[in-house]
Write a structure and sequence with these properties.
Strand content: 15-25%
Number of domains: 1
Strand order of the largest sheet: 3-2-1-4-5-7-6
Oligomer: single chain
Structural class: alpha/beta
GO molecular function: S-adenosylmethionine-dependent methyltransferase activity
Mean pLDDT: 94
Shape: globular
InterPro entries: Methyltransf_11, SAM-dependent_MTases_sf
Keywords: Methyltransferase, Transferase
Protein name: Methyltransferase domain-containing protein
GO biological process, one term: methylation
Low-confidence stretches: none
CATH architecture: 3-Layer(aba) Sandwich
Length: 177
């Protein structure tokens, strides 16, 4: 059976996962303050880790290092965080950080930014990266298609007025160890 971890699960309890949160809510298997404690698991333990709407609340470099430690070689971590243009960054007073689709490339080997010397851990690569938009707004529809054609269109979006015209919602990324 695949060992899976759901970090910062809150009320989103997932069957087949170890559900971890800072508070003992119904369905939470492990209580851990990931901003101030090491993840209470052995090295190379999980094949899959889900980390949705968590990293913006913590000092994420330290948490990514812990995720890397407990992820098996070849394992995948799936991350969702607010995009830096998202109004959710400013609504929630517990948000500490904002993200670009390029943020996580700094933690992967063989990326064009080649800045992995800043950290003593690296994921092998970025498997998937996507910018999401609120689909209820018709202005966003063309951007939902165009922005995620490739890294170049995502970069053009982030570096031009397009980001102000149609603010994004989240960044979704998958990193492989």
């Amino acid at each position: 059976m695949i060992k899976k971890l759901n970090i910062g699960c809150g009320n989103d309890i997932k069957a087949g996962f170890i559900n971890l949160d800072i508070i003992q809510l119904p369905g939470v298997d492990v209580v851990c303050d990931i901003d101030n404690e090491a993840l209470p698991f052995e090295d190379n333990f999980f094949e899959y880790i889900l980390c949705c709407d968590v990293l913006e609340h913590v000092e994420y470099i330290k948490v990514l290092k812990e995720i890397h430690r407990i992820l098996k070689p070849g394992g995948v971590v799936e991350i969702r965080v607010p995009h830096f243009t998202s109004s959710n960054n400013f609504i929630d007073p517990t948000h500490k950080k904002m993200f670009s689709f390029r943020t996580f490339s700094f933690f992967a080997d063989n990326t064009k930014y080649n800045r992995n010397y800043y950290f003593d851990f690296q994921f092998s690569n970025v498997l998937h990266s996507k910018i999401t938009f609120i689909s209820k707004n018709p202005i966003n529809w063309p951007f939902m298609i165009w922005v995620n054609i490739n890294d170049t269109t995502r970069k053009i979006y982030e570096e031009t007025f397009f980001r102000n015209f149609a603010p994004a919602y989240n960044v979704e990324v998958q990193l492989k160890k």
